[in-house]
Task: structure prediction
Amino acid sequence: MSLGGETCAAARSRRAAEIGADPDPGRRAQKQFFFDLEEAAHLAEAAPAVDAVHAAGQLRLLERLRGESLGRDPEVVAVEQVSRLVLGLLTRHFGLDGGIDVRAVYAALLRFGDAQLRSTAARPGVLVNHNGEPNGPEFFLFGELALMGVRVGVQVQAWSALVPALLGPQDVFCERYSNGPRRHVTGYRPVHAQASPPVDPAARADEVLSLGFEEAVARSTRIGRAAFRIFPSTG
Result:
């Protein structure tokens, strides 16, 4: 596969070199997490579970924004496999005292959703492999994975604690990647990235991370409905 004349292998090597050269250890860990996550999600043994959870997450998000009854989650074994993958990487890169540093996860996801971890090869209107930024509204699926884990009883304590951090940066993502007044769920792509000052995670962390589980979900629902113009049916 080639995007912008660059093969996947070349993009992987280029991005790995970029990450290694970043002088900021915190930002380097953030970039490395998303790089490792993309690599792990495409491994043959993980792909079926990732695909199942991804598809279910998209449906669950749409139903949540519409206020409809939720459908079925994927088989628990698929959620378990993806949970192990993602929580393992979160622990590796943002581990703290035997657990996961929720504030560090929030900062990483906010910077990712704010295009602060973008590859130097990425340019407005140009899609490249390993671009270091969200590919679209799938950014919301980080939060949907946490909610899915809680619903099906997989790593409930870990996912419950991470819900505010994973749902919290969604407003920043929507501000950065808004595709104008005619917003739609198919928008919010890298080509729509807005040029504006970066958001400081520390400026919003206390307010967002102090939210309880239900408050964080309600806030996310409001953000998603406004961003994607999806509202509960009145019929």
